[in-house]
Write a structure and sequence with these properties.
Layout: H1 6-41, E1 70-75, E2 80-81, H2 85-88, H3 91-103, E3 108-115, E4 118-129, E5 132-141, H4 142-193, H5 208-256, H6 265-296, E6 303-306, H7 307-318, E7 326-331, E8 335-338, H8 340-357, E9 361-368, E10 373-380, H9 387-390, H10 408-418, E11 422-428, E12 431-439
Parallel strand pairs: 7-9
Antiparallel strand pairs: 1-2, 1-5, 3-4, 4-5, 6-8, 9-10, 10-12, 11-12
Helix pairs in contact: 1-4, 4-5, 5-6, 6-10, 7-8, 8-10
Length: 442
């Protein structure tokens, strides 16, 4: 069953439901039909009290599709009304009915009898008139009842069989209709798995199948963007690594030939050391980006961290890079659950950017806003960021003025994704500000 296609499964499901309905009809309709005749059509006629029952003519047969219903009354003294019933019933049958009526305890009871080859089913209802008991007898010939049941059963089997075939055909068409978009999605997902994801998936339905198709299309778009980002990042990494490697190799070859490009051994070695340090920092940042991608899919380390103390440590260590800058700190005591290493790297990258661009002032504030979010603001009085640069700051290897590797803000954004935070960089009056918001865990 698991290996069957969805079309076959849906068709089998609808067909099974139709078959069950067909069987239910075949099983219960005969019983319902019999009860209808014995309980409903078999109710005895109530004689009108305004008429003389002795002059009541023999009731005419009720002609209902080839079967007859008869009814009469037996009084306490075994008199029958109408009296001519004796002319139509065999004496043995009439005597049997009278005995059953006299011995009956329940208000109503059904009996069966055989007279030659004719089978009878009759009911006796016990009643009272003027304080005296009487018995209303109704019966029909069992052969006539069975004949009708067989007739109606054959017709119902025919009509139900036609309905069953039509339902199977409708089920097959419906199953194919439902499975068609799913088959399209299956083929499209296979193409995506083979990295052929540039063809869009268009599903016009608005039901659950349409929602699934829309989700697949969103996934495809994300994969396309991710692939483009990876390709761009790979090209940028190659370019960033090529420059220091080329400088180091060219200086080493020159020095091997007795030539010192910087005028002497010490100057040339210093250039090689600077390029090696640049190469080392770039590799460390690339490795840290890979580590953040790993942490994003795992449960991060969670410990109590005092953000105000962490910021104080970072600022004390970085103040000596530019001792002429004026610092203004407004740090409120705030505790967060998180990983100290990732938070420290994020704060150092942000602070390094602002410290590099500041002219004379750098402000840092830490507080909780009215949305129960931790807010960390950096401000420097340096030059404003060009609008076209501001839109691309978070792209890997995109460097603004005085930028190093273009990975600092990318690392910051990846870390904030782990903490479900946001970062906003804006041009302010007289400088630039960066605002980080992190929701507080409940």
């Amino acid at each position: 069953m698991r290996n069957l296609s969805l079309t076959v499964k849906l068709w089998l499901a609808f067909s099974l439901v139709s078959l069950l309905l067909y069987l239910v009809v075949l099983l219960f309709v005969p019983s319902i039909t019999r009860n209808f005749f014995t309980s409903t059509l078999g109710e005895p006629p109530v004689p009108s009290p305004k008429k003389d029952v002795n002059k009541e003519p023999l009731p005419s047969f009720l002609q209902i599709r080839d079967f007859h219903i008869r009814g009469f009354i037996i009084l306490e003294d075994t008199t029958t009304i109408p009296s001519r019933v004796r002319q139509f019933l065999p004496p043995s049958l009439l005597q049997e009915i009278k005995q059953n009526a006299a011995s009956q305890q329940s208000p109503r009871k059904l009996y069966e009898s055989t007279n030659g080859e004719i089978h009878f089913r009759y009911g006796i209802q016990k009643d009272t008139a003027y304080g005296r008991p009487l018995y209303q007898v109704t019966f029909l010939r069992k052969s006539e009842e069975d004949k009708f049941v067989r007739s109606i059963l054959l017709r119902m089997m025919l009509y139900s069989g036609i309905a069953l075939l039509l339902s199977w055909l409708a089920s097959l068409l419906l199953a194919r209709y439902l499975a068609r978009p799913l088959i399209r999605m299956q083929k499209h997902v296979k193409r995506i798995a083979n990295r052929n994801w540039h063809e869009p998936l268009n599903v016009k339905q608005e039901d659950e199948i349409g929602q699934l198709g829309h989700s697949i299309e969103i996934m495809r778009q994300h994969l396309v963007r991710q692939d483009e980002t990876q390709q761009s990042m790979l090209q940028n990494i190659s370019h960033e690594l090529k420059t220091p490697v080329m400088v180091i190799r060219s200086y080493a070859r020159a020095m091997q030939d007795g030539i010192y490009p910087q005028g002497g051994l010490a100057g040339s070695v210093r250039v090689i050391d600077e390029e090696g340090e640049r190469l080392e920092k770039l590799i460390k940042q690339l490795l840290y980006l890979t580590r953040l991608d790993y942490l994003a899919n795992k449960n991060p380390v969670s410990e109590k961290i005092n953000l105000d103390h962490l910021m104080e440590k970072i600022t004390e260590r970085m103040k000596f890079q530019r001792p002429k800058i004026k610092w203004k700190l407004n740090l409120h005591p705030i505790t967060i659950n998180g990983d100290e290493d990732t938070l420290r790297v994020m704060f150092e990258n942000l602070l390094d950017n602002h410290l590099r661009h500041a002219v004379s002032l750098l402000e840092i504030s830490l507080y909780v806003n009215n949305k129960s979010e931790i807010v960390l603001c950096f401000y420097n009085d340096g030059s404003k960021i060009e609008p076209h640069v501001l839109e691309q700051l978070y792209q890997p290897f995109h460097k603004g003025m005085k930028g190093k590797h273009g990975l600092g803000l990318t690392i910051v954004q990846r870390i904030l994704q782990i903490y479900q935070g946001q970062i906003y960089i804006n041009n302010e009056k007289g400088g630039v500000s960066s605002t980080v918001t992190i929701p507080i865990d409940e």
